[in-house]
Amino acid sequence: MGLVDTVKSNERLKQFALRMIAPKRNPRPRLWVRWFLNPLKHKKGKGSTIRRNSRIDVFPWKRFEIGALTTIESFCTVNNGSGDVILGDRVRVGIGSVVIGPVTMGNGSGLGQHVFVSGFNHGYTDASKNSSEQALDIRPTIIEDEAHIGANSVVLAGVTIGKRCQIGAGSVVTKDIPPYCVAVGNPARVIKQFNHHTGAWESVKKKSAVAV
């Protein structure tokens, strides 16, 4: 049995290890983890940038990877405590945005300013307990290649936003959006779709709208 398995199998050792990584009441990695352990554990692509005044709360037990030429702008928060956060090449996370794993963003995709993207919801099945004491409802969120999310939007857990989609500012995405679509509103609905035969973005009527 290896060291990691030994720690996992012993509750006292496990709790001690967790306290060494992050304070019990403050789920943020300790300074030594951010400075020494995370750079060895997590991959950072060539030419990528993380602004110093962003809050990168990433832990060694989940993946945090950013591709080449990817930028995480100022005042962002990224957290992988509940799932992997994987950002492809040439991704831009706009000022003040929040990304809480599990979240995957494909190459060339981007978030505008103050966008919230999460891969989990707080559980609330047991009405006799505070939701903070219940298991998380974890459902990975995927933003595919070259899709862009407008400022002040919210992307809920379990959603897939297809390739080269455009999500209007202030939208709340609650369901999957097919590739090559424009979606707006709360909840977001498809209003345009790219027609590969005509080479144009065409309006989608409510009755014939693509299912989202």
Write a structural description:
With 212 residues, the chain is of the alpha/beta class. The protein has helices spanning 3-9, 11-21, 31-41, and strands at 43-44, 49-50, 55-57, 64-66, 71-72, 77-79, 85-87, 92-93, 98-100, 103-105, 110-111, 116-118, 120-121, 137-138, 141-143, 148-149, 154-155, 160-161, 166-167, 172-173, 181-184, 189-195, 200-203. Helix 1 (3-9) packs across helix 2. Mean pLDDT is 87; it is low at 207-212.
Summarize the structure.
The protein has 212 residues and is an alpha/beta fold. The protein has three helices and 23 strands.
Key attributes of the depicted protein:
212 residues; alpha/beta; 9-stranded mixed β-sheet; disordered C terminus
N-C termini distance: 48 Å
Order of helices and strands: HHHEEEEEEEEEEEEEEEEEEEEEEE
Number of strands: 23
The secondary structure category is alpha/beta
The Cα radius of gyration reads: 19 Å
Q: Regions with pLDDT < 50 over 5+ consecutive residues?
A: 207-212
> Mean pLDDT score, rounded?
87
Count helical runs. 3
In helices, the fraction of residues equals 10-25%
Strand content: 25-35%
Q: Taking strands numbered 1, 2, ... along the chain, how are they ordered across the largest sheet?
A: 2-5-8-11-16-19-21-22-23
Q: Give a quick account of the main beta sheet: strands, pairing sense, barrel closure.
A: 9 strands, mixed
Shape type: globular
